[in-house]
């Protein structure tokens, strides 16, 4: 949790082109069933270049990318300097352990927007082009040998709205069985 005890949006980013990092902006507008207005990854069908090449008709389960700010602090202790937007995320959060959320968890961002979590982000090799060796820190194994991915989560917009730094985040867990996130 952050010092105020509430989970919050630290920063928001978008880019209308497919580049690795996204510039920080004052606010973003989430559009139901589409994603971040003005972002290259917005659309009802898949927009990520790798996934687009595999099946351009697939539903877009990667409309919004969220990363915890706590990851940046961890990376700093390992000698990396990463700030919001630099890993391509749309929303940088504080106070939520995103990678442990169950499939279908809903994140209420600010007054109106709701993002439903669809899976873990699978970091790509472009991360090493950003900072050499960074990918190895974002994909590791825990003590039991399980692969741990720390590059945040992906989601779809189920209710639109404007999101800005400082907005509160409320987590709504899905009813029934809590399924672990898979990799998208």
Automatic annotation (TrEMBL):
PROSITE patterns: MOSC. One of its GO terms (molecular function) is pyridoxal phosphate binding. InterPro entries: MoCF_Sase_C, MOSC_domain, Pyrv_Knase-like_insert_dom_sf. It comes from the Bacteria. SUPFAM superfamilies: PK beta-barrel domain-like. Residues 22-172 form the MOSC domain. This is MOSC domain-containing protein.
